[in-house]
Every structure is written in structure tokens, then in C-alpha cells.
Amino acid sequence: MSLQRDKDFMLRQHLAGRGIRDARVLDAMARVPRERFIDAASQGSAYADRALPIGCEQTISQPYIVALMTESLALRGDEHVLEIGTGSGYQTAILTELAGDVVSIERHAQLSQQAGRALAELDYYRAKLIVGDGTLGWPLEAPYDRILVAAAAATVPPALIEQLAPDGILIIPVGGRERQVLQAIRKVFGQMKSEAITPCRFVPLVGDAG
Q1: What is the pTM of this model?
Q2: CATH at 16
Q3: Is residue 19 a part of any domain in this protein?
Q4: Does residue 42 carry a catalytic annotation?
Q5: Binning pLDDT at 50, 70 and 90, where does residue 1 land?
């Protein structure tokens, strides 16, 4: 089966078939070539609905989770977005397709460099990649309309709450290794309102406030 057929099956079965409805998200998932963000040995599985290893004991999330997290951000096209955990750069590319600009933090320099090369090869230049501690956010460019965290925290890092703009949305997996819940946290009139989206399993968020 060709990668294009695999992608079409992913879009139809794993995304739309499981409830992803945002046409902009589906279009972005159709445009971004996931195979360009993984190594050659895994490219035959690029559109399988599962996580794949990318080095440094990290993974590229399964397509459904990428789409679900992105849809939960409710992006319109002009948002200033902070991504915690650049990883392969695939989620970064999806966000760049849909938002105004993206600041993405990765603690592993090797992964940040690999992601930067992949993004540049595909002309995704509206993402700024930073090597650093994602639990501290990036206050130099705060506040952020949207924040997406691609690793699980036992509790939400205070810096991310502080750097979220009024009416902003933070998507983050919360919990320990055995039980995690993907949450949407909204800042409404200075108050944080949390909504559970789905059980999930992510690598742990590591850092001073992780």
C-alpha cells in the first residue's frame, strides 16, 4: 500500500471516523507529510495510528491524538501559539499550518535540530524553535493565545498558566505514568476552567516545574 493510500485511510478511518470534525485540522493533516518527520526505518508505518520512536526516548504521537489536541485548541488562524515538546516537529508543522505563529520548546538539542531541518525542508518558517525547559514556558514572547503540551505533567506548571492569554486555551496531559487525562484548560475572566478530553498516555514532562 502506498503512503498516499495510507494517508487517505488515516484521514477517513482514524481521524474523521473517530470524530475529528474540524475541516481545517483535517486539511492540515492531509497536507503535512508525516513520513518526513520520522526515520527511514519507520516510514512504512508513517500513517499507522500509533506512536513511533524518534530518538532520545521520545515518540511522535499517533495521528489521532495529534488531530484531537489540535482540534481542541480551536485555532482560527491568527493565534500566537506556544508548543511544549517539539519532538519530531510534526505537531509543530500542523500548528504552523493553522495558527499565526508558533514558538516551540524542546529540551533535547538533537531533536530540536532534527525538527528544524525537517521543517525548513518543507518551508515551515513561521515556527521558532528553542532548546530549553518547557515547564518554564517562554516568557519573552508571552502571553500566548494557545499552549499545547506534548508530555504529561503531574500538575499543570504554574508558568504555563501565567503565560496563557485571557480567553486562551491550554491543552495538556495531566497525571502519572499509569493514569493520564488530556485536559483543555481555559482562562476565563482570570479563572481557570478545566475540561477532561480523553484518557491518554504520554512520556513525562521533565523540567524544573515538571
Answers
A1: 0.96
A2: 3.40.50.150
A3: yes
A4: no
A5: low
Residue linked to cell 500513517: 47
- Active-site annotation holder among 2, 45, 61, 72: 61
Q: Is residue 210 part of a domain?
A: no
Residues 109-136 have pLDDT tens digits of 999 999 999 999 999 999 999 999 999 9
